[in-house]
Every structure is written in structure tokens, then in C-alpha cells.
Amino acid sequence: MGPPDPRPIGVFDSGVGGLTVLRALRARLPGESMVYLGDTARVPYGTKSAEVVTRYSLRNAAFLTAQDVKLLVVACNTASSVALPALRAALEVPVVGVIEPGARVAARASRSGKVGVVGTPGTIASGAYQRALLAERGDLRIQVQACPLLVPLAEEGWVSGEVPRLVARAYLAPMRQAGIDTLVLGCTHYPLLRGVLAEELGPEVALVDSAEATADEVEALLRRGAVRPAPAGGGSLRVVVTDTPDRIPELSARFLGERVERAEHVDIQAG
Amino acid sequence: MGPPDPRPIGVFDSGVGGLTVLRALRARLPGESMVYLGDTARVPYGTKSAEVVTRYSLRNAAFLTAQDVKLLVVACNTASSVALPALRAALEVPVVGVIEPGARVAARASRSGKVGVVGTPGTIASGAYQRALLAERGDLRIQVQACPLLVPLAEEGWVSGEVPRLVARAYLAPMRQAGIDTLVLGCTHYPLLRGVLAEELGPEVALVDSAEATADEVEALLRRGAVRPAPAGGGSLRVVVTDTPDRIPELSARFLGERVERAEHVDIQAG
Q1: Which residues of A171-207 are buried (b: 16+ CB within 10 A; e: fewer)?
Q2: Alpha carbon distance B116, B178 (integer Å)
Q3: ipTM value > 0.90
Q4: Looking at B53, B71, B187, B239, which residue is catalytic?
Q5: What is the mean pLDDT of chain A?
Q6: Is B187 among the residues known to form the active site?
């Protein structure tokens, strides 16, 4: 399968939520170098149109391919749900989104065949999870819910107590009524709210974190030699954002689980 | 004071929140034509840096001056708090922001001299309200609070009931403790949450809506002839957005109080 490939893995997201995907990747693949791009000057993508999200995604990918990445991970659910075809057409390296891996794990995990998906308005409206789940397993009954309040709750660190519990209860009531046994956390911010979501649904409902599923998929690509792994030794990490990086030390501690003191700032075109 | 000036008044905001300012302007000045630009492809500004907000604001202003406006209203609190000097330096027409008018009304309204300001993280961090209030009245004691959850609550129409009440209670607790008698609603979305905010603070606290105060200021400029008013007859309205206008009919009904069925879409530079 040829010599090791020291080029980094590129990861982009609309902001800092994708750091939960980066976290899973780094835990799984400590030898790989990674470049993370957070488009914080345009965050969030979840409330914007497919056209605008695709345009921003192509630009993020162009920045990362200029960093000579060997593989691109689209760590943003909204971008994965609308921009993957355009990204795959434009790039020569493999492109992994977060939708298909999460859908695959959920389709396998469900015994009752009743699966729920929570995500941003953009992700839910795209129908991407619904299509990916049915492609895995045609007999699934799928209940979806857009949850626009969960991203600001997670970013503000408002992840336990009465407010997130009531918000979760309102969003999840139709899920409970539908009797789902598996819930896909279809947004990279939602793992931070895992506690309240799990509490509202009860212990009999399995929560599927797309970040973990995506890291599994990337690991499999490297193991199968579809992309050659890095040479032995520790991988490096660069974090780049399009707005000023002032809040990155704090937010990286929360989302990545390690404090990134020196994030770089880049002005992607005149955006 | 010269012949009437039929040119429109230009209004921009990061998204749809500024429609509450447009609403106040149209109620006050029904004869004036208006062009509203909502930068919905980059919304929100409130969580972004001053540098990025200034860049976006200059672009929005350039679009509106190309529409030959006679006056520019910056209907976004975040943009008003960081970009006014740059806008005034760049433009030849008068520029009115929402901070100074709101601060003026609040400074006059307060008897106790204890004034509260709620706004986005960007607005509060800029210190613009604090400076404007102290410029009006040096003896004020000012309590500020960034309220990042209120914008998504207003946009989702979640404006009454337990969730917004608990969120408002958490944000306003320090205000109550400080004994304010006047609260500035320092974000164009907040008038939609006026009910729960007023309920939490009690009837003895006056709420100042910057939209109304700004419309007063624009009316005064026209009355004093600083800008010449339109000729007799009804003014026209154009609403332009940078993302697809799919949700504008619904959101304009909520924020503007009239349903704009045909908003235009414009792609401001390669943003």
C-alpha cells in the first residue's frame, strides 16, 4: 500500500461544533496530523440556505486543499447534508461527511425500527439523514425534529438545569410519543447536551453521536489503505478560524477537550 | 429648505431583526420610500468580532448607497456599536445608528439613575451603550447583560411560556438586584420578547425600545431639514436579503407587521 503519507487530515466546520468530531478523530488516530478550519465569521450554517452553505463549503475545502490535506472531513452536519456532492465533484481527495456514518450506526442499533433524528433547521430540511437512514434500512420509521435553540445553549455552556431540560422536553415530546429506541444527534453541538437529552428520553433510548461514527469511518479508510496512514510518531494539530480567535481557548477546552491557546486567523477571500 | 427629495431611506441589519426598526420608521414616516437590506447570509453579527462586523457593515452600506439613498439607518445594534465611525467616514449621507437614540431616551426616562442594558455579546462587549448613556448623563449607574439566547427564541417565535420566562429570569436577576428603573432593549429582536421581559421586571421598570427612539431621531432630522423629506404621496418599500428569501414572508409578518411576499435576493460581492 505504498509508503506512509505524512500529509494532514483536513477538517472543516461552520464554527467550533466540529471540534467534537476533531476530538473523536484525535482520540482514534493520534499519529495523524490534522488541520481544523472553523468558519466562525459566517457561523451558523444551520439556518442558511443550501446554496449559501454550498458556496461557503467549497471555499473552506479550497483553503484546506491548499494546505495539502490527504483526506477531507466535513465535520458540519448542515454542510454534510447539502454540499457533499459539490465537494466530491470539486476535490481529488476522499471526502467524508458526518451524515452517512451516523445513519449507519443508528440503522444497525435500532431494534424497533423507530429512529429519531435531531438537528439544525438546515440539516433536517435537507432530508439527508432521512435518505441515508432509509438507504441503510428501508423499513425504518423516522421521526425528525429541528432544534434551533440547542446550538446557542451548548455554546453558552447552558447544558444542565431547568432551561435546557425544558427546551429538550419540548423538542423531544414527539420522539417519546413515537416510541423511538435510537436517537441520532445530528449536530456537532449536541453531544454537549447529551446528559439532558438522555434524561428526557430515558435509558431505553440509545443516543448515536455522529462524531464517534465519523471517526470510525476515517479509521476504516486508513486501515483499508484507501488513504495511507501517517508515519510513526505523534501528529500535529493546527486550528484556523475565519473570525478573530479570542474565544477559541475557552471554546476548544469545552468542545475539543484540550485548550488551544494559539488558533490562527485566516481571511478566506473577501468573505 | 429646497425641493422635496424623493430618494429612499436605506436601512440595513444583519438579518430580519431590523425589520422592527423599519416598522417604527414606516409608521412614523409613511410618505418616505425605504430600502431594507438584511444580511441573512452572514447573520448573526452579535457573536462576531468588531473587525468582521465593520467589514460586513461597509459592504451593506455600499450596496445601499448604490441604490441612491439619502440617509442610512443602521438598524443593527451590533453594527451600530462598532461600525458607526467607519460608516460615517466612508459615506456622504447622514448615518443614524440605534444606540445613541435609545441611550438618550433611557437617560431621560430614569429617575433613580439606575439603568440596565440587554443586548448581544457583541453589543455589550463593545461598551457602546455604556459610553452613550454616560455621555447623556454622567451620574448613571449602568448594569449590562449579554443575552445570547434571546435572538434564537425570538426568531423561532418562542416568545411566551415557561422557557422564555426562565431564560429572561436568569438574565434579568442581576438587573432586579441592582434595582434598575429603566431597561434598554439593546437588540432589535427583543421587542418581540417584551411581554416576558416586562413580566420578570415588574411594572415599575420602564422598557426602552431602540426602534422607536431611532424612528424619532430620523423624523427629527427630516423635520429640521437636515435631510429633505419626500414629496407628498405614499412611500415605496423594497426588502432585499443576501440569503434566499424563502422565510421572509413569515418573518416579515412577525417582525415588520406586514407580510412581504416578494423580497429580492442579492449576492453582495463574493461574501
Answers
A1: bbeebeeeebbbbbbbbbbbbbbeebbeebbeeebbb
A2: 9
A3: no
A4: B187
A5: 94
A6: yes
Active site residue A147: no
Which residues of B fall below an 8 Å CB-CB distance to A? 40-43, 47-49, 51-52, 148-149, 151-153, 155-156, 158, 162-163, 166-167, 170, 243-244, 246, 269-271
Asked if residues A188 and A76 have their Cβ atoms less than 8 Å apart, the reply is: yes
Q: How far apart are the first and last CA of chain B?
A: 40
Predicted pLDDT at B270: 46
Give the DSSP per-residue string, A99-114.
HHHHHHHHHHH-SSSE
Which pLDDT score is estimated for A102?
96
| A128, A162 contact by CB (below 8 A) | no
User: Shortest CB distance from B48 goes to which of A51, A166, A243?
Assistant: A243
Query: For the segment A5-64, what is each residue's pLDDT rounded down to a tens digit?
Result: 999 999 999 999 999 999 999 999 999 999 999 999 999 898 889 999 999 999 999 999
Give contacts of A156 with chain B, Cβ < 8 Å.
Answer: 148-149
| Closest approach of A5 to chain B, Cα-based (Å) | 35
| Coil/strand/helix, residue B26 | helix
List per-block mean pLDDT (blocks of 10 residues) for chain B, which spans 271 residues.
92 96 96 97 89 96 97 96 96 97 97 96 92 97 95 90 95 96 96 96 95 95 92 94 94 94 85 43
Measure the CA–CA gap between B1 and B227, rounded to whole angstroms: 9
User: What pLDDT was estimated at residue A225?
Assistant: 87
Summary count for chain A: helices (H), strands (E): 11, 10
Strands (E), chain A: 9-13, 34-38, 71-74, 95-96, 114-119, 141-146, 182-186, 206-209, 237-241, 264-265
Please give the grid coordinates belonging to residue A58: 467549497
* Residue with the three cell numbers 453589543: B123
- Burial code of B235-261, b = ≥16 C-beta within 10 A, e = fewer? bebbbbbbbbbebbeebbebbbeeebe
Q: What is residue B122's predicted lDDT score, i.e. its pLDDT?
A: 86
What confidence score (pLDDT) does residue B94 get? 97
